[in-house]
Amino acid sequence: MRIAVLDTEPDQLQLINQTMASLGHECHTYPGGKALLHAMRRETFDMLVLDWRLPDMKGPDVVRTIRQDYKSRMPILFVTECHDDTDLVEGLNVGADDFMAKPLRATELQARINALLRRSYPARHEPELVFGPYHFFPPSRTIRVHGALVELKNREYELALFLFQNLGRLLSREHLHEAVWRLGVEALSRSLDTHVSRLRTKLELRPANGFLLLAVYGLGYRLETIEVDTQAVTALR
Question: Residue 218 class from Cβ within 10 Å (0-12 exposed, 13-18 middle, 19+ buried)?
């Protein structure tokens, strides 16, 4: 997954980066709250880890902006040297999901990260995922639509599953590239568009099936659910 990190202490930042890498996540670090908020105008992340004290903003103000202005529900983990209950309550009230006290311990950090991600993205840990007529079977990496097996290439399957696991969420091109290809945007911009086009056709992502894959100009893609008129669909069939 794609994790954003704000921490001003080099040792703690290195520990967080190493922990994220050991769990297989992509870690993106920012020097302050304003830099992160600027990046989030065009970027998307699966989780945020941030220090309470930042050089340009207060941690709670960053969280408040993310929740209220950016409407993001990604899990947020505060790391702080403070042990004051007042700070804890303030952080939770503005939208943080969990706290950890410094100095951080790698094993506890791993456990907290895994717990937050499982709670925030429960569908990613199921042996079978069902989205209307679309049935994903992660162990065998197969998908059936209305009961019929659809043949997808490896990257097509990964992209389809990732989009369905993030229904209704705008995913930046960078986010999609890192999640599926693990490479940068410049190398794969056309490849992403080609894969999206193929998925629309192969999976019949259209209103009659309850889903629509939209391109958001200059940003990325969003898979949306569409209310289906069952009577009209039955008549068409």
Answer: exposed
Q: Which residues contact 235 (CB under 8 A, 6 or more apart)?
A: none
The residue type of 115 is A
Dist. CA 78–CA 98, nearest whole Å: 6
Length of the chain as a residue count: 237
Q: What are the Cα distances from residue 237, in Å, to 174, 183, 208, 231?
A: 39, 42, 10, 10
Cα–Cα distance for residue pair 34/32, rounded to 1 Å: 6
Q: What pairs with residue 2 in β-bridges? A: 26
Comparing 139 with 160, the larger pLDDT belongs to 160
Tell which residue, 87, 29, 30, 28, has the closest CA to residue 60.
87
Which tens digit of pLDDT belongs to each residue from 189-235?
Answer: 678 999 999 999 999 999 999 999 999 988 899 999 987 665 444 44
Q: Tell me the one-letter amino acid at 101.
A: A
**Helix and strand tally (H, E) in the chain?**
9, 12
Place of tokens 């990325």: 220
Q: Collapsing DSSP states into helix, strand and coil, what is residue 132?
A: coil
Q: What is the distance, to the nearest Å, from the Cα of residue 107 to the centroid of all Cα atoms in its chain? A: 23
